[in-house]
Write a structure and sequence with these properties.
By secondary structure, the protein is of the alpha/beta class. The protein has a domain of 157 residues: Rossmann fold (3-Layer(aba) Sandwich). The protein contains 7 helices and 10 strands. The strands form 2 sheets. A 6-stranded mixed sheet has the order 6-7-8-3-9-10, sandwiched between helices. A 4-stranded antiparallel sheet has the order 2-1-4-5, with helices on one face. Helix 3 packs parallel to helix 5, helix 4 crosses helix 5 and helix 5 runs parallel beside helix 6. It starts with a strand and ends with a strand. The structure holds adenosine-5'-triphosphate and magnesium ion (MG). The site of magnesium ion has 2 residues, from helix 1.
């Protein structure tokens, strides 16, 4: 049996808006094996992004437990979670979130800088990753000198720089035209194979979901099928 890289046990997430209680995730449980490709799908507002943030350790559940890379996120403090994320997790946001004052190359190197040092080796690796996502001649470009699809590819290269065990992506192709979206997908699948990175992504795209090995369907905060 393969190693379980992510285990979600009976998680609930409530939001308190005034005196109104919003129960967004309801007793959600699932497991993901290392190296797998997984889609989280469901209608708008069904809790997909909430679920992704929780499993990536960016948010905390109201109850339940999440084990990421064998570590219980609920037994860690914020610093410990940050360290686990910086070593094992990559995250791609729908809105790219590149730093505008840094070049493409510098943006890709950021996670290593945060880990306390990015030397020549990191730079070489960043160049290689940019090459792998088809941006060999865009190293010196700033985000506002790149197209949307190119910015998204920089975000992918950045997410892979620390060779994460798990990559979480929230609608990584949601803002892109179909063809550019397919290129992004190819980059993700290629890097998944090359580095053995577990891929967990939220998508509204049925064609993309069909290419994943596991599909988790959310509806009204409940898992309706796997
Ligand atoms: N910080 C918050 N405070 C209050 N309610 C929130 C918060 N974040 C999300 N919600 C609510 O939780 C529900 C689920 O939100 P979530 O972003 O997880 O949906 P989603 O499935 O990702 O939807 P979409 O496909 O539109 O991105 C929504 O009804 C939303 O209004
Ligand atoms: Mg969402």
């Amino acid at each position: 049996m393969s190693e379980i890289i992510l285990e979600v046990k009976n998680i609930n997430r409530h939001y308190q808006i005034g005196d109104h209680d919003l129960h967004v995730l309801k007793d959600v449980s699932f497991q993901i094996e290392a190296g797998k490709t997984v889609a989280i799908v469901g209608p708008s507002g069904s809790g997909k992004s909430t679920c992704l943030s929780l499993t990536a350790g960016l948010d905390e559940p109201s109850s339940g437990e999440i084990l990421l890379c064998g570590e219980n996120l609920q037994k860690m403090n914020e610093d410990q979670r940050a360290e686990l994320r910086s070593k094992n997790v990559g995250f791609i946001f729908q809105s790219f979130q590149l730093l505008p004052t840094l070049t493409a190359l510098e943006n890709v190197m950021v996670p290593m800088e945060l880990q306390g040092g990015a030397g020549k080796e990191t730079e070489a690796k960043a160049r290689k990753l940019l090459e792998e996502v088809g941006l060999k001649d865009r190293w010196e470009h700033y985000p506002n000198q790149l197209s949307g699809g190119e910015q998204q590819r920089v975000a992918i290269a950045r997410a892979f720089i620390n060779e994460p065990k798990v990559l979480f992506a929230d609608e990584p192709t949601g803002n892109l035209d179909t063809e550019t979206g397919r290129h992004i997908e190819e980059s993700l699948f290629r890097l998944n194979k090359k580095y053995g990175t577990t891929l967990v992504l939220v998508t509204h795209d049925n064609e993309l979901a069909a290419k994943m090995q596991q599909v988790i369907r959310l509806k009204g905060g409940v898992i309706c099928s796997e």
